[in-house]
Amino acid sequence: MGTMTRLFQLMAEKKASDIFLSTGSPIHIKISGVSVPINQRTMDGATIATLLHEILTDAQYREFEESLELNAGYALEGVGNFRLSAFHQKGTPALVVRYIPAEIPQLGTLNLPDVLPEVIMEKRGLILMVGATGSGKTTTLTAMLDYRNERKPGHILTLEDPIEFIFKNKKSIVNQREVGADTRNFQTALKNALRQAPDCIFIGEIRDKEIMSQAIAYAQSGHLCLATLHANNSYHALSRIISFYPLENRPALLADLAVTLKAIISQRLVNKPDGSRTPAVEVMLNSRHIAELIEKADMIGLKESMEQSMTAGSQTFEQALFRLYKSGTITLDEATANADSANNLLYLINNDQTVTAEAGHSGHGSKQEAPLFDPVKSIAPGADFSNFKDFTLKLDA
Is the Cβ–Cβ distance between 307 and 344 less than 8 Å? Predict the structure, then answer.
């Protein structure tokens, strides 16, 4: 069994999100947002190159050598899928791998807002899922798509770079296209998507004006279009979209968004006291009032509207974090650290009579605190981690 196969199995076993291979450092694995070394051996460029050869085809490795970087997918039967990002740093190869579980999680198991199943069953419109890298947005959006797949006949078309979760055909037919393997580039795939008669289109990531314009056009033509975007929250997402376009095109863009947008869902993963993580989710659902604010590019008004719960089902990050804190799921420190406005969050807490010190409040009240998460023990329970006796991956000679 190759070293990379063992590393992939380790990621699945420990529910790790990423591994990092870099010259001059041991291999690191990230569990619940904490990165730790798996052994004491320092990697060198030649060893990393050997490991890359284990998982890349000859054609992929040539592309990596020529372009100095490569994004690709790798599947290990019974374990899961892996998103590879190979690159060079200081003249030597490096690799970051993201783990994608073999099974798509059920939407109802992810502790998400109750409105999301209703959102994904829409007939037409634009749904944006936003968040930072590693925030779980792909997992949430994939679970939403599979919820639709299980309940609604139709054709779901995905355009991904690379493919991550693997769908099974259920009530819908799901066709997944990977850039580089199934299509030359995003632009060609986007141009031909409507000819493939989809009911629902998923675009892996909106990166520029051209992709954004195509997403809006799909929604305008009577399709449900879903896409991810890197942004901190709903109004930041709208600001980013606006920035794609020159000033003279923005009024038309805002008018189109006001009509086509169904929802912007923003997600952050927050730490629970036991070391696991749970999503905190902001939801901005479109309504007549929200559409008017979008058309005016009134970001302050959008936030105020959400804070005042003027659209049923919408919620800010502060409201989501308040509920997690109130239920005892997270501590006060964790809630305030992840809020857009700690003052707004504290206002919600201080004006709610049902919240007590027992509701996950760190350092107060009589509730016994959960033991702090120890990432070392999560890898090697009971290990003397100072000398890595209990857990060491030995590289093949």
Answer: yes
Q: Token pair for residue 304?
A: 């105020």
SS3 assignment, position 80: strand
Question: For the packed helices 3-14 and 45-55, what is the interaxial angle rounded to 10 degrees?
Answer: 80
Q: What b/e sequence results for 380-395 when a residue is b if at least 16 CB atoms lie within 10 Å of its CB, and e otherwise? A: beeeebeebeeeeeee
Q: Is residue 397 part of a domain?
A: no
What is the bridge-based pairing of β-strands 125-130 and 69-76?
unpaired
Residue 130 has pLDDT above 50, yes or no: yes
Predicted TM-score of the model (pTM): 0.83
Which of the given ranges, 157-171, 295-309, 374-388, has the highest pLDDT on average? 157-171
d(CA 229, CA 223): 19
**Cα gap 143→186, rounded to integer Å:** 23
d(CA 59, CA 57): 5
Q: What is the pLDDT of residues 21-70, one digit of tens each?
A: 999 999 999 998 899 999 999 999 999 999 999 999 999 999 999 999 99
3-state secondary structure of 354: coil
CB atoms inside a 10 Å sphere around CB 311? 18
Distance from the first to the final alpha carbon of the chain: 12
Identify the domain boundary among 299, 315, 331: 315
pLDDT 10s digits, 313-352: 999 999 999 999 999 999 999 999 999 999 999 999 999 8
Residue 211 and residue 304 in one domain? yes
